[in-house]
Amino acid sequence: MLGEYPIHGRGAAEIAASVERAVGNGDLEPGQPLPPMRELATRLGVNPNTVAAAYRTLRERGVIETAGRRGSRVRPKPATTGREALRVELSAGVRDLSTGNPDTALLPSLATALAASAARADRTPFLYGDDPVDPDLARIARAELDADGVPDGPLTVTSGSLDAIERVLAARLRPGDAVAVEDPGWGSTLDLIPALGLRTVPVGLDDDGPLPDDLRGALRAGASAVIVTDRAQNPTGASVSATRARALRAVLREHPETLLIEDDHGHAIVDLPLHPLAGATRHWALVRSASKAYGPDLRVAVLTGDPVTVDRVRGRQRLGPGWVSLLLQRAVATLWADGAVDRAAVAAAYGERRQALVDALADHGVTAYGRSGMNVWVPVPDETAAVARLLQSGWGVAPGSRFRLDTPPGIRITISPVAVADIAPLAEAVAAAVRPSPDRSYR
């Protein structure tokens, strides 16, 4: 059943680690069945309960799944391999539109802000026991959150959006709990959830955000939490509209104990207003990252939420990294306060490229989506073929399998590296690669 690859180990932890290594290096492939527990126990000379414990650990880590009499098998998208392993290898001369990175020309210079932060640290070093949140960053962030209608709540700082999401999920949920997620959605989140021992429940979306009926179905089916991207949704560019926000709040009020997590990573690169859902449930958190506007290496995100959730995140943080570097926090505060990013100009730059590509594809009869942010989502009839054809044409795009659960195939195109002169040839190449274009939305 497992070919030439033997599973090793005498204890549950060793057996689980052996399977996990095999999945990670490709010796065990997605969907491949594992031996029945009694059979493997006989082969290894251990008690069947030992194998059962190993399989349970692998399920909790999101590596395998068990389907009754069908037995256990490697998950179709195991957490061990990660969706980034689905990246396309690019040959010389191929333009890379697959990364999801911001346009470096639109990022601010960091030298002055970092130098000022370092000089302040020289004068007054940050020490153990000091407040782990820079007061200037907290003041600026709170003022903007207030202006956007986000409910009042305590603030803390995490190392980016994904760090915040992980900490909030770990603070509130237990292994086996279900989390409602956007489909298609951010691949890192889709990997993180099973890695925490949680289950994903897909929620469809359109340009205005998650579909209320889908969310209602997920919550009625037992989802304990929901993650919503407010703007610049990855990969589709969806942005929660005012009308959709009202409908989603109504659904959430039917389930007041649901944990609501909002990701507003696009706050400084989009020109669409925020319509927060926070306050519709008792337990909530909203995170704003500096990565897209100021640079991915500034691992700083501001997290607010209800007092208990934020307090739990702070407490667990104290037991691990302790805090996010005040050098970085103060640099972000300086950049934010000084208006180092012309938000209107950045939003316009991304918006013009995005809309130009969507319009050019429409001229070729190809449906595409991209209401906000730096990505365009294109439904395709055959994902593998479309990616391969585009590679032959000199364009590297992200396969939709990085971002999908139940959604039909698609490709994600990052428009950050695209110039005006690139739009026409890119649209022509995409149209040739995806024909016949599917007559359906990305839902």
Q: From the alpha-carbon coordinates, what is the Rg to the nearest angstrom?
A: 23 Å
Give the structural class: alpha/beta
What is the percentage of strand-forming residues?
5-15%
Query: Biggest β-sheet: count, sense, barrel?
Result: 7 strands, mixed
Instruction: Tell me the number of helical segments per DSSP (H or I, 4 or more residues long).
Output: 15
* Alpha-carbon distance between the two ends: 37 Å
Q: What is the tally of beta strands?
A: 16
Instruction: Determine the mean pLDDT.
Output: 90
Gross morphology is: globular
- The low-pLDDT segments are none
The helical percent reads 25-40%
Q: Provide the spatial order of strands within the biggest beta sheet.
A: 4-12-11-10-9-5-6
Structure write-up:
The protein is of the alpha/beta class and 443 residues long. The protein is built from 15 helices and 16 strands. The strands form five sheets. It has a seven-stranded mixed beta sheet, sandwiched between helices. The longest helix is centred in the C-terminal third of the chain and has 21 residues, at 343-363. The two termini are 37 Å apart. The model has no long low-confidence stretch (mean pLDDT 90).
What is the strand and helix layout of this fold?
Blueprint: H1 12-24, H2 37-44, H3 48-60, E1 64-66, E2 72-74, E3 95-96, H4 111-123, H5 135-147, E4 155-158, H6 161-172, E5 178-182, H7 187-195, E6 199-203, E7 205-206, E8 209-210, H8 212-220, E9 225-229, H9 242-253, E10 259-263, E11 283-289, H10 291-294, E12 301-305, H11 307-318, H12 326-337, H13 343-363, E13 375-379, H14 383-392, E14 395-396, E15 398-399, E16 410-414, H15 420-434
Parallel strand pairs: 3-14, 5-6, 5-9, 9-10, 10-11
Antiparallel strand pairs: 1-2, 4-12, 7-8, 11-12, 13-16, 15-16
